[in-house]
């Protein structure tokens, strides 16, 4: 069963947090067998290995639902691991961290910075106040952790992606601060998307009659409610490595309706602090160059013409007053998260639990687990 630090004695809470930080996983003195695991950003500019005491494995991983993680990554939660004390990355070529390739973002009021690749936007992690490295598990090429900690689950009042407990502890609780509803000058509703630093900020309207009348764009309107857009969970390794989370929630929105208008190729500047990275022959991704948040994804298969391009909008950035799932704005493809079979090869336990939990939520919410086309 999952537990919460709230209401525990100080000693019990300290013991749980000590386990969350893998303090008991540090190497003992003397010789010991070490397992080396490799990690890298998506573009390969940042590469390193970590040597872990074999006897300490698996480490305890965490799933953090706080708003800082959501707004700096564009996801519903960060999936990470705290390396044991004194364990440091062994950077490529025996050197130090390539600072010229790593961007740093300091959250106001926090003593430590968050690091990400300045070329592709991949979240790298950073040092905590205690000097230990905290890193997304998605950086690594193989699994050496078990998710045992839920952090700040009350910051997602509609549940986010947390449908099943993964372990023994949830750490410090924090309340959800609801966003305020927004309206355009004509009084119609708008949904705000904004990264943590505010450098990339835009709004999304409801589907218009012009969208519904368009032979292509109508396919991205909810099949059950013409006032909503389609949404899905994506478990592909590319999205995971770039965002710093095993799963990325996307809302599919025609480019032409976003306000202010998004450039047709995501390249034209300025569009706030948006930077772009071509992650494949078909995909171009937009991320904030200041805080590193995943923001947008453009895919050639969703662009029959420039005027009909449909973008993936990272739903971790949405400021829906009702909660992070933005249910007043989206219908979820709960029956079929994308790339689930591929994700099982990376972390089968997490993937199976997430897919089943999302399907059950869909049945509870809609009476069925919806499946519909997204390309």
Helical percentage: 10-25%
Order of helices and strands: HEEEHEEEEEEEEEEEHEHEEEEEEHH
Number of domains: 2
Q: At the third CATH level, what is the topology name of the largest domain?
A: Metal Binding Protein, Guanine Nucleotide Exchange Factor, Chain A
CATH top-level class of the largest domain? Mainly Beta
Amino- and carboxy-terminal Cα gap: 39 Å
CATH architect. name of the largest domain: Beta Complex
- Strand fraction equals 25-35%
Give a short account of the largest sheet: 8 strands, mixed
Number of helices in the DSSP assignment:
6
Low-confidence stretches: 1-8, 162-173
Rg from alpha-carbon coordinates: 21 Å
Mean pLDDT, to the nearest integer, reads 88
| Strands, total number | 21
Shape: globular
Strand order of the largest sheet: 6-7-8-9-4-3-10-11
User: Given the helix and strand composition, which structural class is it?
Assistant: alpha+beta
Task: Provide a descriptive summary of the structure in words.
42% of the residues are buried. The chain is globular. Mean pLDDT is 88; it is low at 1-8 and 162-173. The protein is of the alpha+beta class. A hairpin with a 5-residue loop joins strand 18 (283-288) and strand 19. The protein folds into 2 domains: 10-170, Metal Binding Protein, Guanine Nucleotide Exchange Factor, Chain A; 182-366, Metal Binding Protein, Guanine Nucleotide Exchange Factor, Chain A, CATH 2.170.150.70. The strands form 4 sheets. The chain has an 8-stranded mixed sheet. A 7-stranded mixed sheet has the order 17-18-19-20-16-15-21. The chain has a 3-stranded antiparallel sheet with strand order 1-2-5, with no helix packed on it. It has helices at 10-20, 67-73, 209-213, 237-243, 340-344, 348-366; strands at 34-40, 47-53, 59-64, 78-82, 90-91, 102-106, 113-117, 123-127, 133-136, 145-151, 169-170, 182-183, 189-194, 201-204, 229-234, 248-254, 274-278, 283-288, 294-299, 310-314, 330-332. It has 6 helices and 21 strands.
């Amino acid at each position: 069963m999952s537990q919460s630090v709230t209401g525990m004695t100080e000693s019990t809470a300290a013991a749980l947090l000590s386990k969350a930080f893998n303090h008991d996983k540090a190497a003992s003195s003397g010789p010991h067998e070490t397992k080396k695991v490799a990690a890298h950003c998506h573009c390969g500019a940042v590469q390193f290995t970590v040597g872990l005491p074999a006897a300490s494995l698996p480490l305890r991983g965490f799933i953090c639902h706080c708003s800082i993680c959501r707004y700096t990554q564009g996801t519903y939660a960060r999936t990470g691991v705290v390396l044991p004390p004194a364990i440091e990355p062994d950077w490529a070529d025996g050197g130090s961290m390539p600072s010229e390739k790593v961007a740093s973002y300091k959250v106001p009021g926090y003593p430590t910075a968050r690091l990400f690749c300045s070329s592709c936007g991949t979240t790298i992690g950073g040092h905590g106040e205690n000097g230990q490295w905290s890193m997304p598990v998605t950086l690594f090429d193989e699994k050496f952790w078990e998710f045992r900690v839920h952090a700040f689950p009350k910051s997602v009042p509609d549940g986010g992606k947390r449908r099943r407990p993964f372990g023994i502890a949830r750490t410090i609780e924090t309340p959800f601060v609801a966003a305020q509803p927004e309206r355009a000058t004509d009084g119609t509703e708008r949904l705000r998307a904004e990264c943590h630093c505010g450098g990339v900020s835009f709004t999304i309207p409801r589907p218009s009659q012009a969208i519904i009348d368009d032979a292509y764009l109508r396919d991205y309107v909810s099949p059950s409610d013409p006032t909503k857009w389609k949404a899905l969970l994506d478990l592909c390794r590319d999205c995971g490595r770039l965002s710093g989370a095993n799963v990325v929630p996307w809302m599919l929105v025609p480019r032409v309706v976003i306000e202010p208008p998004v450039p047709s190729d995501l390249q034209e500047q300025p569009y706030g602090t948006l930077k772009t990275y071509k992650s494949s022959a078909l995909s171009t991704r937009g991320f904030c160059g200041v805080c590193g948040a995943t923001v947008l994804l453009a895919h050639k298969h969703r662009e029959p013409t420039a005027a009909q391009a449909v973008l993936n909008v990272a739903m971790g950035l949405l400021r829906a007053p009702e909660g992070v799932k933005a249910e007043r704005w989206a219908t979820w493809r709960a029956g079929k998260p994308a790339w689930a079979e591929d994700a099982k090869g990376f972390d089968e336990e997490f993937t199976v639990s997430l897919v089943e939990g999302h399907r059950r939520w869909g049945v509870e919410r809609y009476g069925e687990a919806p499946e519909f086309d997204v390309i």
